[in-house]
Amino acid sequence: MNKNTFVIFLYISFLFISCGQVKTSESFTAMNTYMTVSIYSSSSKKGKNVCREIQEKVCELEGILSTTLTDSDVYQLNHNKILDAPVNPELSELLDFSKQMYLRTGGAFNPALYPVIREWGFTTEEYKVPSPERVQELLLNTDFSKVECNTAGLLLSDRMELDFGAVGKGYAADKAVEILKSNGIKSALLDFGGNIQAVGKKPDGSLWRVGIKNPWEGGAAAALSVESKAVVTSGGYERYFEKDGVRYIHIFDPKTGCPSNSNLESVTIVCESGKYADALSTALFVMGKDDAIDFYKANTDFDFVLVTKERELIYSAGLRGFIEPLTDFSRVECTADSFEK
């Protein structure tokens, strides 16, 4: 067999393998959002079984983490201030991770803000602007480091309540990836309410293309090409209310107890872990442009895209060659051009 014939043989073999992958897509609602699982497997039957397994796992996690389902572990903890041992291992895992992120981000990521967020009406959509005195009163019980876990179980202070909404979908995506890998799935794309998780590459060997929403005109502001990565964006342009000409977004600054007044429109995090990307996207948004870049300088185990209110697009060095602006920006900058790692 000559060289050209061998190359053609490999190409035909690749096409045969790619064409042998059957796409299965299933959608469902969980964790108060719409989720879609798209996978490529050896058969439609296998694909449907794996999709069903993922849906069951996500719903199981919702039954642990929900703040509104009365039988959930978190609901019981919030209302009784104690969750007897043995604590669910997945709740314990997420709690440990959240504590690490709380400390690592200087409190910018904080799952103990639930009473504050509820006071502003974001849990019921009955929006209001509470008095500064009321906000300060509620902030007294938001020190997440004081959550106790001992042989008796989980313990909260008298007025503390938890909400893992800023990390729950990312955690669920990580568990879904575990299921995909255990079933031998090498190509899949998950969309958990805007939290994207890419597994491997597309069946044809190309990278997955993921859009970053344009906060001004709609559509996509930029596109990322990724392989085996989580892509999670936090922005204040979708959930907000306005009062007296002021816009109040759903992302809160734990220091002030008020909706964040960040100079960012959105933060997108790209890394392997869904829960890490989920937590970081919120924390860096709260930090604002300069502090977010400083955090990245000290923690380069992820990549980021910042879209600022001045219509800047700033991205980390690891995304060079994998990001494409799709709208007009006042400035496009890679952080590698402004500092040395």
UniProtKB/TrEMBL annotation:
Q: Which cofactor does it need?
A: Mg(2+); Mn(2+)
Record flagged with keyword Metal-binding = yes
Q: Name one GO molecular function term.
A: transferase activity
Residues that hold Mg(2+) according to the record: A166, D278, T282
One GO cellular component from the entry? plasma membrane
* Cellular compartment(s): Cell inner membrane
Keyword set, alphabetical order = Cell inner membrane, Cell membrane, FAD, Flavoprotein, Lipoprotein, Magnesium, Membrane, Metal-binding, Transferase
What catalytic activity is recorded? L-threonyl-[protein] + FAD = FMN-L-threonyl-[protein] + AMP + H(+)
Q: Which Pfam families match?
A: ApbE
Q: Write out the similarity annotation.
A: Belongs to the ApbE family.
Briefly state the protein's biological role.
Answer: Flavin transferase that catalyzes the transfer of the FMN moiety of FAD and its covalent binding to the hydroxyl group of a threonine residue in a target flavoprotein.
Task: Give the protein's recorded name.
Answer: FAD:protein FMN transferase
